């Protein structure tokens, strides 16, 4: 079978940086915690757990040691609570996510009601919400438009890993509501956008498309969703072991892409095995 790998796929610099920082801090410190999984990939989390990283879901579970802030970032209130407990902080927040947090803070200071386009449950969005004042609004889809205040100043930003299509479609709906002033900053991640563009370009040329990455990874979901719109024979898998061979029956060319939290070894293993078939 002919296999083509998307030009841009796999680890982004934000995820790479968080893993490198985790490996470094694990060599230097004893009790190292991550608030939530460091990335949405079980294999990477398991490897770091073996090296000593403890993944917890709340601050209450941490009493001493060092906390690694993952690439999604954390709300200022969370950072303050950790500092109050005397816990050392190693900040691996992605530089772009930091910029979005800063923009949200500036918009609030300038009197805008911050509107985040994205998924309210995603940790990156929750961290940005914490930088944007009490009246922050999250718009996931059209059913959330009723949350927008009338005759107000709205400052709009987007979750970094959403697609350009989703951002612009939601903006079109927002501009039809009654506001006084709109300030829009494009906070989409260029690395995520490049992965989406090369995945869409590739899936149009192949008989079957495989999107590799955790089912918990928002950016992998987005990639799979976009590919499905352009190639109905798209399959989201976590790794090689999940492949159902009937998916490529009578197909000659397969495309492969992967989310920003999918390690290189998962992609290589999948491609090598697929080529052997
Ligand atoms: S996808 Fe973009 S914003 Fe998210 S961690 Fe990677 S580089 Fe940063």
Beta content? 15-25%
Q: What's the CATH first level of the largest domain? A: Alpha Beta
CATH third-tier fold name of the largest domain: Cobalt-precorrin-4 Transmethylase, domain 1
Supply the helix-strand structural class: alpha/beta
SSE string, helices as H and strands as E: EHEHEEHEHEHEEHEHEHEEH
* CATH architecture grouping of the largest domain: 3-Layer(aba) Sandwich
| CATH homologous superfamily identity of the largest domain | 4-hydroxy-3-methylbut-2-enyl diphosphate reductase, catalytic domain
Task: Report how far the terminal alpha carbons are from each other.
Answer: 6 Å
Poorly predicted sequence stretches spanning 5 or more consecutive residues: none
Mean pLDDT rating: 95
Strand order of the largest sheet: 1-12-10-11
Q: Work out the number of β strands.
A: 12
Instruction: Determine the fraction of residues in helical runs and give it as a percent range.
Output: 25-40%
- Which molecules are bound besides the chains? iron/sulfur cluster
The number of domains is 3
Shape: flat
Radius of gyration: 20 Å
| Largest sheet descriptor | 4 strands, parallel
Observed structural traits:
277 residues; alpha/beta; Cobalt-precorrin-4 Transmethylase, domain 1; Rossmann fold; four-stranded parallel sheet; 39% helix; 19% strand
């Amino acid at each position: 079978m002919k296999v083509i790998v998307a030009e841009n796929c796999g680890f982004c610099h934000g995820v790479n940086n968080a893993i490198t920082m985790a490996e470094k801090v694990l060599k230097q410190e004893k009790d190292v915690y991550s608030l939530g999984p460091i990335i949405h990939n079980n294999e990477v989390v398991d490897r770091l757990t073996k090296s000593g990283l403890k993944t917890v879901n709340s601050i209450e579970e941490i009493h001493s040691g060092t906390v690694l802030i993952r690439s999604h970032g954390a709300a200022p209130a969370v950072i303050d609570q950790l500092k109050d407990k005397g816990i050392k902080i190693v900040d691996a927040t992605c530089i772009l996510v930091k910029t979005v947090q800063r923009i949200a803070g500036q918009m609030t200071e300038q009197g805008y009601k911050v509107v985040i386009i994205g998924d309210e449950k995603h940790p990156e969005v929750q961290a940005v919400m914490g930088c944007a004042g009490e009246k922050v609004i999250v718009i996931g889809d059209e059913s959330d438009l009723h949350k927008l205040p009338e005759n107000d100043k709205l400052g709009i930003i987007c979750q970094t890993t959403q697609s350009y299509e989703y951002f612009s479609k939601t903006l079109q709906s927002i501009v039809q509501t009654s506001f006084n002033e709109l300030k829009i900053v494009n906070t989409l991640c260029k690395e995520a956008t490049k992965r989406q563009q090369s995945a869409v370009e590739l899936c149009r040329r192949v008989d079957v498309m495989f999107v590799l990455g955790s089912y918990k990874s928002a950016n992998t979901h987005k990639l799979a969703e976009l590919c499905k719109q352009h190639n109905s024979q798209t399959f989201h898998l976590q790794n090689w072991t999940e492949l159902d061979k009937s998916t490529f029956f009578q197909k000659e060319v397969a495309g492969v892409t992967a989310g920003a939290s999918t390690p290189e070894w998962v992609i290589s293993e999948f491609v090598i095995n697929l080529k052997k078939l």
